[in-house]
């Protein structure tokens, strides 16, 4: 039984059940295309089988490697960008203490990230921290040639070698990359790094349930088997019946497309728990890269409430009416803390004295939903009982599957990303990369 529920009742002032029903035949067809690998991008459907097909020996190796790295590291640096970064960060930040770097015990290293930007100051500051601490790292790149992580890895590898010597540095580096090709694979083989494979048929943004996500998540101390179990539960559940009335994945994929057709071209993912911030970032990449092509696609945005109610709240309530919101609603906190009574009551909060903070948060959520509905913002709600490994697994599979279906409804290939090459071509031309001589000449003329 899955724990996640999806509720679109608060969108029914904007779309009708009758219109949604019209998608049923199409959605059945798309499920079959995914199952039989006959749709667009069908070479990249390996993620669908990950919950049950990840071999026990791969999980054993991940856990063993993670345990070894945990023992010798105060800090573990995850080097990667896009799909080789966001999934791990989404899960780790969702499950971790909010202030892991200030928390003493628990045995897990603090997880830091590199290679997700090209900031000199960021890397400089990271090195000053790593000077003082024991650390190890994972370099994650399916292609093995992505500029941002390649620069970060060059710097950190040399730092590790200077700090520990070449032999020990090799034992502190794990490479997660293609099984046979790419510069990183070649280097890993030459240096003898521990390696894990990103399967050929799994694209970056669908790779969190491969070693790309599993190894860092295990190093951070979380139960990767429970996460895969949660994903499997979602997979089994949605495989039973595709009908929009009972299948939350079908319903989410269809409802968001129907809203899009009604002019709601921006979807805002809303969390009321700061620990879900990076889950939204992961979701933004998944949906943005999968659907934003051929001059179409819902624009995926994200906000954290109630924080952003004091900034973006104004726009959402009163701005251009092309938005709908999808709230991740967490029913229970892990801890209890109540609003204290105060004799002076200068802040006039005694009316909620004794109330758990989470209950205040829930009322803020309900009040906001109603206000936004009044302001013309349809509201979709994904409710989860709490945040743990199994639920994260359920959510990951839910959103991946819905993204694939939603992309098919939109008529695009949800598994490619041709648009991300444009900036790379220009950057390589500007940097004078060998092989880009013609582009360099052209771009120089354009800038003259
Ligand atoms: O989802 C994707 O395919 C991209 O975001 C990639 O993950 C990202 O560009 C990093 O690629 P690579 O793993 O080859 O370094």
Give a brief description.
The chain is of the alpha/beta class and 448 residues long.
Q: Features of this protein?
A:
448 residues; alpha/beta; Rossmann fold; 2 domains; five-stranded mixed β-sheet; five-stranded parallel β-sheet; globular; binds 5-phosphoarabinonic acid
Account of the 3D structure:
Helix 5 runs parallel beside helix 10 (211-219). The protein contains 18 helices and ten strands. The protein has helices at residues 17-21, 24-36, 50-53, 56-72, 86-95, 120-132, 147-164, 166-171, 183-191, 211-219, 224-240, 248-261, 277-291, 313-318, 357-374, 389-410, 421-431, 437-447, and strands spanning 5-7, 75-79, 110-114, 135-141, 173-177, 194-197, 266-271, 299-304, 323-330, 379-384. The protein is globular, with a radius of gyration of 23 Å. With 448 residues, the chain is α/β, with parallel strands linked by helices. Strand 7, helix 13 and strand 8 form a beta-alpha-beta unit. The protein has two domains: 5-39 and 242-410, Rossmann fold, CATH 3.40.50; 47-222, Glucose-6-phosphate isomerase like protein, domain 1 (Rossmann fold, 3-Layer(aba) Sandwich). The longest helix is centred in the C-terminal third of the chain and has 22 residues, at 389-410. The strands form two sheets. The protein has a five-stranded mixed β-sheet, with helices on both faces. The site of 5-phosphoarabinonic acid has 14 residues, from loops.
């Amino acid at each position: 039984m899955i724990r996640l529920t999806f509720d679109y009742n608060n969108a029914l002032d904007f779309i009708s059940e009758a219109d949604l029903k019209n998608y049923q035949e199409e959605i059945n067809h798309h499920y079959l295309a995914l199952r039989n690998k006959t749709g667009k991008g069908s070479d990249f459907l390996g993620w669908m089988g990950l919950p049950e097909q990840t071999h026990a020996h791969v999980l054993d190796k991940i856990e063993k490697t993670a345990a070894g790295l945990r023992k010798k590291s105060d800090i573990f640096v995850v080097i990667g960008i896009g799909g080789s970064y966001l999934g791990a960060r989404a899960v780790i930040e969702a499950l971790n203490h909010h202030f892991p770097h200030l928390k003493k015990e628990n045995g897990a290293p603090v997880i830091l990230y590199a290679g997700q930007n090209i900031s000199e100051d960021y890397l400089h500051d990271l090195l000053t921290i790593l000077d003082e601490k024991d650390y190890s790292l994972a370099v994650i790149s399916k292609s093995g040639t992505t500029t941002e992580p390649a620069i970060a890895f060059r710097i950190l590898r040399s730092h590790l070698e200077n700090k520990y010597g070449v032999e020990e540095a090799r034992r502190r580096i794990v490479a997660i990359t293609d099984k046979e090709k790419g510069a990183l694979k070649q280097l890993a083989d030459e240096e003898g790094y521990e390696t894990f494979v990103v399967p050929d048929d799994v694209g970056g943004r669908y790779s969190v349930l491969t070693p790309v996500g599993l190894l860092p998540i295990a190093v951070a101390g979380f139960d990767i088997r429970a996460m895969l179990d949660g994903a499997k539960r979602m997979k089994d559940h949605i495989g039973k019946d595709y009908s929009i009335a009972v299948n939350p994945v079908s319903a989410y994929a269809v409802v968001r497309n129907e809203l899009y057709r009604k002019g709601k071209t921006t979807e805002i993912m809303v969390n009321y728990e700061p620990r879900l911030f990076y889950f939204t970032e992961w979701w933004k990449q998944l949906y943005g890269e999968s659907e934003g092509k051929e001059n179409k696609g819902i624009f995926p945005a994200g906000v954290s409430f109630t924080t952003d109610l004091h900034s973006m709240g104004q726009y959402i309530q009163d701005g251009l009416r092309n938005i709908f919101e999808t709230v991740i609603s967490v029913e229970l906190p892990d801890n209890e803390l109540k609003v204290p009574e105060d004799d002076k009551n200068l802040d006039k909060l005694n009316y909620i004295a004794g109330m758990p903070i989470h209950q205040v948060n829930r009322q803020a959520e309900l009040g906001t939903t109603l206000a936004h509905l009044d302001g013309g913002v349809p509201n979709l709600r994904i409710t989860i009982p709490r945040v743990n490994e199994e639920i994260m697994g359920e959510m990951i599979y839910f959103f991946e599957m819905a993204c694939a279906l939603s992309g098919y409804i939109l008529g695009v290939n949800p598994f490619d990303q041709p648009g991300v090459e444009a900036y790379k071509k220009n950057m390589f031309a500007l940097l004078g990369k060998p092989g880009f001589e013609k582009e360099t000449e052209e771009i120089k003329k354009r800038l003259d």
